[in-house]
Specification:
Elements: H1 2-11, H2 15-28, H3 33-45, H4 49-58, H5 65-74, H6 78-89, H7 96-108, H8 112-120, H9 127-143, H10 147-163, H11 165-168, H12 172-185, H13 188-192, E1 205-207, H14 215-223, E2 228-232, H15 236-241, H16 256-270, E3 279-283, H17 291-297, E4 302-303
Parallel strand pairs: 1-3, 1-4, 2-3
């Protein structure tokens, strides 16, 4: 019952309550592997990576190798990643995901040729893993100064990605149009004409950049600070901006009450991922396009 309750809480994005429910299940049945696994996911959502790794370690004996390897690789814990990969690859039904993670470890260790050799031998990968492998190979070939092979791999990755049903429904022009609208609106005169906004107490810190530029490592360093709660690539800001009438141009004429209400939408979006009273570090690299909105709704917020 506790495990099912935790699953419901997590689906409702009430992650802290989900974690407590999974702990309740484990207090009754300490060897409940699924509850250990679910607790690991909940702790990951909360940004408690060391505790999440510990939960996945306890479930390692029953096929959570992929979860543990993926999480520890993201947390730059190569030692644990290697342990999970070696254990998983010892199972007869080798998983393409583990080979991908093993190649990432080899990348970190500077053994690019070994990573390429491993990935080029992978067969039977599902669509999404095949896409990741293609892009990983492209980056590896770039490191090995093989631009033609890199382009071939990137082209394959783009082709496979375009064939996914979910991706076929994406209109790239929508995102480009949003960037154009923000760029067009963001003039000094427009910003000077904004109505006043109430002061923001302890505004969030926004961690921005480009994918694969080191934002995850920076986020993990900041996560070690006891006064900070880091949020790793969750659509928290999107939840608020979706409520702004006529975004981005509509930001200019918002009254103080509207700004306060929209901050409340953001607060509700971050609540499942942060302990009360912690200073928020909201990491979403491509939110860099919304820098004006961050300044509008959270004057004084730091953009890192």
């Amino acid at each position: 019952m506790h495990n099912n309750l935790g699953t419901v809480w997590r689906d409702l994005r009430r992650v802290a309550e989900a974690a407590e429910a999974f702990r309740g299940a484990l207090s009754l049945k300490p060897d409940f592997v699924k509850a250990h696994n679910n607790l690991g996911h909940a702790l990951f959502d909360l940004g408690e990576l060391d505790e999440a790794i510990a939960a996945f370690c306890r479930a390692l004996e029953l096929a959570t190798c992929i979860n543990l390897a993926g999480l520890s690789e993201r947390a730059n814990r190569v030692d644990i990643t290697r342990k999970a990969i070696d254990r998983g690859l010892a199972i007869p039904a080798h998983d393409a995901s583990l080979h991908l993670l093993a190649a990432k470890c080899e990348w970190c260790e500077g053994d690019f040729e070994a990573a390429v050799g491993r990935l080029e031998k992978v067969t039977g990968a599902d669509e999404r893993i095949a896409i990741e492998i293609a892009f990983e190979l492209g980056q590896l070939h770039e490191r090995l100064d093989a631009p033609e092979r890199a382009m071939t791999a990137f082209t394959k990755g783009n082709r496979l990605a375009s064939e996914l049903p979910a991706h076929r429904a994406i209109d790239k022009n929508e995102f480009l149009g949003l960037i154009h609208a923000i760029d067009t609106a963001s003039t000094p005169e427009w910003i000077e004409g904004w109505t006043s906004a109430p002061p923001a107490e302890d505004p969030p810190i926004f961690l921005l950049g480009f994918p694969r530029s080191g934002t995850t490592l920076t986020e993990q360093i900041l996560a070690a600070h006891l006064a900070l709660a880091t949020i790793d690539e969750k659509p928290t800001l999107d939840a608020m901006l979706a409520e702004v009438p006529g975004y981005p141009a509509g930001m200019a004429g918002l009254g103080e009450a509207q700004v306060a209400a929209l901050r409340g939408v953001y607060a509700n979006a971050v609540a499942p991922f942060a302990a009360p009273g912690a200073r928020i570090v909201d990491k979403m690299p491509l939110n860099i396009i919304h820098a004006a909105a961050m300044h509008r709704f959270f004057p004084g917020a730091k953009l890192v």
